[in-house]
Amino acid sequence: MTTRAHLQDIDLTIRSLTGESDRSRPFLCTGSPIGCEVAEVGINPAVNTPFWPFWSTASGCNKEGWLQDYEKSGRRKPTRDRIEVLVRNLDPLRLLELNLYHRISPRLEDLEKDHRDPALFNYLLTTCKPKVLLVHGQKPTTHLEKLFGVQLPRGKFTSVVYQGGSLEVFRAERHFAYVSRDYVVSVAQEIKAHLARQFRP
Question: What's the pTM?
Answer without folding.
Answer: 0.94
